[in-house]
Amino acid sequence: MPPSLLAVFAHPDDEALLAGGILARYAAEGARTAVVTATWAPGSPRAGELADSLAALGVPGPPRLLGYADHRVPASAPGRPRWCDAPVDEAVGRLVAHIREVRPGIVLTHDAYGQLTGHPDHRHTHRTTLLAVTAAGLGQLYPEAGEPWRPGALYLATHPHSAVTELGELLDGVGKSVLSVPDAHVTDTVDVRPWRERKWAAIQAHRSEVARDRALPGLLARLPRETRDRLLGTEYYTRVGLTDGAYLV
Prior knowledge:
Elements: E1 5-9, H1 14-28, E2 33-39, H2 45-57, E3 64-68, H3 88-102, E4 106-110, H4 120-136, E5 153-158, H5 168-171, E6 188-191, H6 196-204, H7 207-210, H8 216-221, H9 225-232, E7 234-241
Parallel strand pairs: 1-2, 1-4, 2-3, 4-5
Antiparallel strand pairs: 5-7, 6-7
Helix pairs in contact: 1-2, 1-6, 2-6, 3-4
């Protein structure tokens, strides 16, 4: 059985787009899986879509929403600060509580670029997760958040230079930036074709994003199926080892 897995992403839909295959695989193989999402309030429409996405992937339980506002959609969490503006100590402490509750062998999050598009919420999630993974193992930090727990490894969802050409049909004409990493930075190229249908079902669960022309779920929905299947069949990760013995694949 693979180690338990906690994925930390910025927005509802990131879990499906960036790690839907590996999440579906882990859930199917009986590993404990959980997802923390930094933005959007509980009870919002996108929170409901996130719940449907997690169900499609086989990830149990209700969404774990930190409830901060999306950088570009302040109405996503009325009365709450934008994720990028939240006090760092508060944000790290809340994420530490989830790490100590789930006690994952592996934590998965965005890479330093913010994975392809460079969204500021993605980048901030990367930074906050790095801090929280370290803090979670130190008992004198955030003692109110539970017993210390140190994950075995941190993995960053990423995209290599060599695979950027495959995105041409997805990004042509919409002005999306592409922030990729040197191929040598990719430690795990994962074939997720056996779980591709679950991954696509999870992406489609984000109905409001599928309806948007420039959102990635909407762009994928308008591609020929053969092209979409090819794009969704591989995921790329960079391993940041913390202790021995925790590997994604």
